[in-house]
Amino acid sequence: MGFLRKKNYATAGYNTMSMGHGRKEFKPKEKRPGLEHYIEKAGQGTLAQIKNPEAIDEGVITNFMMGRYNRQGNRPGFFPMIHPSFRYKPATGTEGACDSGGLGLVVAVKTILADVADVVMVVGVEVQTTVKAVYGADYLAGAGWYHDRKHGHAHFFPGQFSDRAGVCFEKFGKDKIRDGMAWWYARAIENARRNPKAQEYHNTIKDLYAAAMTPPNPKVFCDNINVYHCSKVSDGGTALIFASEEGLKKLGVDKKDAAELVSWGQSEDDITNPQPDLTRMMASTKAASLAYERAGLSKKDIGVLEVHDCFAIAGLLMMEATGFAGYGEGADFVTAGKTKKDGEIPTNATGGLIGYGHPVGATGVRQAVDVVHQLTGKAYDCQVSIDSNRPYGMMVSMGGNDITVVSMIFKKPE
Amino acid sequence: MKLDELLENVSVIGAAGKMGSGIAVLLAQEVAKLKIKNPDKIYKVNLIDVNKQGVEGLRKYIKSQTIKIAEKYIVSLRHTYESREDIVENWEVIDAFVDETLGILNFGTDFELAKNSKIVFEAVIENEELKVKILKELKIICPEDTLFFTNTSSIPIRFLDKEAGLQGKIIGYHFYNPPVVQKLLELISSDETDKEFKDIANELGKRLGKKLFLSNDIAGFIGNGHFIRDGLYAISEVNRLKEGHSFSGAIYIINRITQDFLIRPMGIFQLIDYVGIDVFQCILKVMSKHLRDETLHSKLIDKLIEKNIRGGQRADGSQKDGFLKYERNRPVGVYDVEKSEYVTIESFKDKLDSQIGNLPDGFNPWRKLVKASNKADMLSTYFGNLRNGDGFGIELAKSYLARSKEIGERLVKDGVATSSDDVNAVLINGFFWLYGPINDYI
Q: Under CATH, which architecture does the B223-431 domain have?
């Protein structure tokens, strides 16, 4: 027995399509489905992979800003709509900005470890296309400290990460970082084109690198980044089940279809304090190191990686936070092709937040689903080859500007 | 006097019209920005139109356009409100700006509203007598040093100046439709216009976000100087082709040649419908009157107007029927002038398309090429193939290209434009062409 006092498995993951600009099906002027649609679709997708839905003891609904995007509060109230047997069962809601999903995963695992449930279902959702991006920027700014909003950029979060990029330009060289960001975008889209559910699945840009090298336009956007360096505004849902060994049996799920959770790391920074060094992501580094340490593993054991690339610069810094690249070397690592599907460490193989999309409150769960799919051989065209010498998959989900972070490590079934 | 001071009180005459309402939006926003900078000063933008109903709709239009623009320029707009601690989120900035803009507007039907305006925009229909009459009235109402900007697409400024007795205090501002979107602004001054006024007009045009091109004071200027002659050539080609292909067939053929074979955003007859056949006729009359050496007249245009076939757009922006009949703004029929009815395009399309023949290799429709990064190379390859090709459609296209070039070159020769570049720039920016008429393609 490692860090966890009893075995914990993740199984039956399901992601909906990430809907929004980029998808041919997206019609911004027509009426579109709401939260219920994505929760139901993701929930049903998961239930279809298990024999016994009644075995699910509890639910967690993860979401960031439904209060503003959808004028809706009371997240847990959506859990029972997924299956009739869920009515009157316990449910919880989590919110931690873009890491709302990550927090939901942790809540599910803790509930099982506390022996109050054998099976917990986590459903993440966000529906953001209800307003134009210019107003959505106000809502998303809630992931930062509200005192900073007044003097923040119109596009608050792109502004925050543009500032990170700017500091990195100065410290490590502008050309190198811009190159790295452009390659990050190119890899994200290449991967998304293999994922029919990705928002960028239909992307037809021929020279991805050149597109992402478009100079930033501070007049209408940010100083140091352009729109290619940003994740999408998305509607989407995702669901995953956590179960103890007993729970798996009750569900009727074979162990080969489940990935074992071997550890997690969680870290929280002070939202009211300015970041001491914009070239580093301290909370993410802390969460990832904790996950490694608790599992007794290192980067050499990881065969597939999912990181939070809300912006291309965050992608580069994540490669450093997870230890794959040295300080200041994230851009070199990406430019050298080491994060490609067949590279040194296949990263964000389904497209990541830039390629798949970023239905904010669902993203952390979506990342875990994709890692579990990779480890259980269910990633279809996005499947990477998992070497038996490094049978682990890692994810890092981050909320705000490196404020709320969860990292998990899963193991491929025997 | 500085432009900022002049803008403290401005008026737009014909503000509910297609052009006037766009000019009103642009001016209102510019003045609103001044108001934000100088909150204690009183600013007024008087929007005047004899059409009472139109004035009521104008407020709504300005509001919706102002919201759109505020959303688009939110980055700089946030800076404008930096000192207002109570305005934090984007939507608050946008709301405040919209309120500010609507707050400085005065709506009305009476020219007296313009009595304190130092700048007056006149944007009534393209009719010489009407423009002169209104300018004369305004001259009496407004302060002596008021500067007049007339939105005309063809009438010589010298003529308006003389007839209305404005003594050089008038300049031509030819906006393109719709003024809020179109970047091009043709600026026309007369020999009488003084240097200071020209500088003000230049600065204001830039502040309104326009790309300015100087056109000399010759009827039609650059834009219509080309468009009207291009249209007349199309009509002459229809007259030539109608014997063998019927009138509606000939309209279809020339419209298709100009749109597809010449890779323009729309065919020439669709463009005339878009501008309005009545507007086309007005411009023709003006040009014909002021350019006596040239025959600028079309019996066909007169006949269509007699039959009340006018084109133009409805209040909601949808296209009215003209040479062509439209469904959801797409051509579905062609007018038969003899029978006074529309014939469906479907009834003859296949037959005529096979006579027109295939497009040359390398063809890409306008909407695709407009987004292409290497459009110059693609156009050059395509037109090379067109030049070396043959067939009915290709020959028509070659003649059309040659005529268009001839028109463009003449605008330079006659001194309407200072250079070929200016002619090309006006067609590219004002008509969304991918290439100018003066080119090496033919």
A: Orthogonal Bundle (1.10)
Q: Does A135 contact B at CB distance below 8 Å?
A: yes
What letter represents residue B399's amino acid?
S
Cα–Cα distance for residue pair A229/A214, rounded to 1 Å: 10
Chain position carrying tokens 């409805």: B314
Residues of A in contact with B69 (CB under 8 A): none
Cβ contacts of B88 on chain A, cutoff 8 Å: 149-150
Domains present along chain A, CATH in parentheses:
9-132+234-258 (3.40.47.10), 150-232+263-411 (3.40.47.10)
Please provide the average confidence, as pLDDT, over all residues in chain B.
94
Q: With H, G, I as helix, E, B as strand and everything else as coil, classify residue B97.
A: helix
Q: What percent of chain A has pLDDT over 70?
A: 100
Query: Is the pLDDT at B315 greater than 80, yes or no?
Result: no
pLDDT of the residue at B381: 96
Interface predicted TM-score (ipTM) of this complex, two decimals: 0.92
3-state secondary structure of A395: strand
- How far is the C-alpha of A70 from the C-alpha of A58, rounded, in Å? 24
| Mean pLDDT computed over B251-275 | 97
Beta bridge partners of A52: none
pLDDT for B1 beyond 70: no
pLDDT digits (tens, 9 = 90+) for B182-211: 999 999 998 888 889 999 999 999 999 999
Pairing mode, if any, of strands A119-127 and A258-268? Answer: unpaired
**Residue A264's beta-bridge partner residues?**
A408
pLDDT digits (tens, 9 = 90+) for A127-162: 999 999 999 999 999 999 999 999 999 999 999 999
Beta bridge partners of A259: A10
Q: Measuring CA to CA, how many Å separate B353 from each of B123, B242, B422?
A: 42, 16, 35
* Cβ neighbours of B322 (radius 10 Å): 24
Q: Give the Å distances, CA to CA, from B435 to A79, B210, B215, B388.
A: 59, 20, 19, 19
Residue range B3-214, CATH number: 3.40.50.720
For residue A212, the one-letter residue type is: A
Question: What stretch of H or E contains B249?
Answer: helix B247-256
The domain segmentation of chain B, as residue ranges, is 3-214, 223-431
Q: Which residues of B touch A150 (CB under 8 A)?
A: 85, 88
Query: Strands A258-268 and A9-15: what pairing?
Result: antiparallel
A137 → closest Cβ in B72, B73, B90: B90
| Strand, coil or helix: B356 | helix
Q: Looking at CA atoms only, how far is residue A310 from chain B in angstroms?
A: 20
Question: Mean pLDDT in chain A?
Answer: 97
Contact A236, A45 (CB under 8 A): no
Tens digits of residue pLDDT in A199-247: 999 999 999 999 999 999 999 999 999 999 999 999 999 999 999 999 9
Show residues of chain A in contact with B90, CB under 8 Å.
134-135, 137-138, 154
B74 touches chain A (CB under 8 A): yes
